[in-house]
Amino acid sequence: QVQLVESGGGLVQAGGSLRLSCTASGRTFGTYAMGWFRQAPGKVREFVAAVTWSGGNTYYADSVKGRFTISRDNAKNTVYLQMKTLAPEDTAVYYCAVSYGPGLPTPGHQYSYWGQGTQVTVSS
């Protein structure tokens, strides 16, 4: 089993920034991509960003491209999501996840392990 713990969420004004972190522990064998997803109240969970094991390849949802940056530090088993120019529509619970599949998957079902989530609230 792999355990994921997110942190860094909170309340921020529109235009502000936050950095989320997610640390993996447990049976983190091999190489794996990591992703961030979010779910707003009353909406389905959506893909936000993903990064390969090496960190050399990333992929973003169009809604966050240019504002969010995903990165990882394998020595710390941690993935980050730097969020800038936040808007009220970014308000959601943000989840990190691990995928042992190829590439940078966007569907949630291709991720094997999930964190509990961290709340991000952007006020207008």
Oligomer: single chain
Average pLDDT figure: 95
Q: N-to-C terminal Cα separation, in Å? A: 40 Å
Largest sheet: 7 strands, mixed
Write the layout of secondary structure elements.
Layout: E1 2-7, E2 10-13, E3 18-26, E4 33-39, E5 46-51, E6 58-60, E7 68-73, E8 78-83, E9 92-99, E10 113-114, E11 118-123
Describe this protein's structure.
There is one protein chain. This protein has strands at 2-7, 10-13, 18-26, 33-39, 46-51, 58-60, 68-73, 78-83, 92-99, 113-114, 118-123. A hairpin with a 6-residue loop joins β5 (46-51) and β6 (58-60). Helices cover 0% and strands 51% of the residues. The strands form two sheets. Strands 2, 4, 5, 6, 9, 10 and 11 form a seven-stranded mixed sheet that branches. Strands 1-3-8-7 form a four-stranded antiparallel sheet, with no helix packed on it. The protein has no helices and eleven strands. It is globular, with a radius of gyration of 13 Å. The chain starts with a strand and ends with a strand. It is an all-beta fold and 124 residues long. The mean pLDDT is 95.
Q: Concise description?
A:
The protein has 124 residues and is mainly beta.
Fill in the keyword field for this structure.
124 residues, 51% strand, single chain, 11 strands
